[in-house]
C-alpha cells in the first residue's frame, strides 16, 4: 500500500481508502457479513482510512466501522460527516447545540473519543458564505472532540469558498473521468492551501466499471434508482450527473483504458491517483472482491501524457455537455 499526506493534518493515509455509503445503505441489498469481511480485507491490505456519514444507513455504517476497527482506533483513521440528518437549509442545523449533538451521536456509534476528520456534508453554499459553522467546528476541535475538519462539496465554487476558511484541512469532492473539471482550478488551489483531497464517486456510481448496459436496473432502495434524476438530492451524486443511458454509452467508449491495467475500475482509480494533489480515492464496496479490485489500482501503470490529453479531450467534447447538477 502507498500512503499520502492528508494535506497539513499530519495524517498519512492509504492512497486507496474506502467509503461506506454502500455497506450502510442506499445502494440496494447489502449484507453486514459481506461489509465486515470487506472492511477486514481492506485493513489487512494496509488501508488505514475510511469515510462514512451519520446518515449512511441512519448511522449503521458508523456502527460497522466500530466493529471492524475495535482495538485499532490508533491505527485506523475515520472521517465522518454531519448536517444531513437535519434540514440542511436551516441555520439551526449548524448551531453549536446541533453540531455538538451530531458529533456526540457519531462518537457513540463509532465507539471513539475523537473523530479524526469531521466534515460538513454537502451544505448549501449560503451556509458556507455565512461561515458560522466553522467557529463551531473550531470549538469542537479545541474541546478534543475532533482532530481536524473539512467540507464535502458538490461544486468547484463551494470547494474554493471552503478553502477561504483557514481551519478547513480537507475537501471531499466528486472527481473522475466523467468529472474532470476540478483538475483545472480546485486541485491546485487546495494543494497550495495545504488542504487534503478525498475523491468520492471515483467510478461514477459504477458506470466506470464498464459492467452496466442501457437496460440495467437497480433496486428501489438504491440511489441509482430513486435519485437517477436528482429526485432526492443533488443529481451530481448519482452517475456523476450523467443520464444513465448516456453514461453507459460513454463508458463503452473508454474501454481502451483497460489495456495493461486489468479492469476499468482499476484504470479509473489510477487516473485519479495520477493527480498528485489527491490524497486518496474512496470507492465504495459491498464485498471483498470489490475491495481487492480497487486496491489493485495502486499497482497498475500510470497514464501517459498522450493518454491524459486524449481523456481530457474526450471529457470536453463528449462528456461535459451532458452533465447535470453543477460541476
TrEMBL record:
Organism: Paenibacillus helianthi
InterPro entries per record: AKR, AKR2_Oxidoreductase, NAD(P)_OxRdtase_dom_sf, NADP_OxRdtase_dom
Protein name, UniProt field: Aldo/keto reductase
Record-annotated NADP-dependent oxidoreductase domain positions: 16-314
Amino acid at each position: 500500500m502507498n500512503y499520502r499526506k492528508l494535506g497539513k493534518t499530519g495524517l498519512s493515509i492509504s492512497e486507496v481508502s474506502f467509503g461506506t455509503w454502500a455497506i450502510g445503505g442506499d445502494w440496494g441489498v447489502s449484507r453486514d457479513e459481506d461489509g465486515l469481511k470487506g472492511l477486514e480485507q481492506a485493513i489487512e491490505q494496509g488501508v488505514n482510512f475510511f469515510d462514512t456519514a451519520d446518515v449512511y444507513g441512519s448511522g449503521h455504517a458508523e456502527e460497522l466501522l466500530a466493529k471492524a476497527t475495535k482495538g485499532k482506533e490508533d491505527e485506523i483513521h475515520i472521517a465522518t460527516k454531519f448536517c444531513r440528518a437535519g434540514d440542511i437549509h436551516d441555520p439551526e442545523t449548524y448551531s453549536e447545540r446541533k453540531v455538538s449533538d451530531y458529533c456526540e451521536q457519531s462518537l457513540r456509534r463509532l465507539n471513539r473519543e475523537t473523530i479524526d476528520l469531521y466534515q460538513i456534508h454537502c451544505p448549501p453554499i449560503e451556509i458556507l458564505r455565512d461561515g458560522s459553522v466553522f467557529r463551531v467546528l473550531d470549538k469542537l476541535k479545541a474541546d478534543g472532540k475532533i482532530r481536524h475538519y473539512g467540507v464535502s462539496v458538490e461544486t468547484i465554487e463551494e470547494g474554493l469558498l471552503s478553502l477561504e476558511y483557514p481551519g478547513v484541512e480537507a475537501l471531499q469532492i466528486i472527481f473522475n473521468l466523467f468529472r474532470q473539471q476540478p483538475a483545472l482550478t480546485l486541485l491546485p488551489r487546495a494543494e497550495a492551501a495545504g488542504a487534503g483531497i478525498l475523491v468520492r464517486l471515483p467510478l461514477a456510481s459504477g458506470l466506470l466499471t464498464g459492467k452496466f448496459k442501457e437496460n440495467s436496473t437497480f433496486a428501489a432502495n438504491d440511489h441509482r434508482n430513486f435519485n437517477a434524476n436528482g429526485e432526492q438530492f443533488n443529481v451530481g451524486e448519482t452517475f456523476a450527473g450523467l443520464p444513465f443511458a448516456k453514461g453507459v454509452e460513454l463508458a463503452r467508449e473508454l474501454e481502451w483504458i483497460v489495456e495493461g491495467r486489468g479492469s476499468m475500475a482499476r484504470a479509473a482509480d489510477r487516473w485519479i491517483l495520477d493527480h498528485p494533489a489527491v490524497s486518496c480515492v474512496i470507492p465504495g464496496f459491498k464485498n471483498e472482491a470489490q475491495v481487492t479490485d480497487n486496491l489493485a489500482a495502486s499497482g497498475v501503470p500510470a497514464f501517459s501524457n498522450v493518454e491524459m490529453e486524449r481523456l481530457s479531450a474526450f471529457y470536453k467534447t463528449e462528456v461535459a455537455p451532458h452533465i447535470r447538477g453543477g460541476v
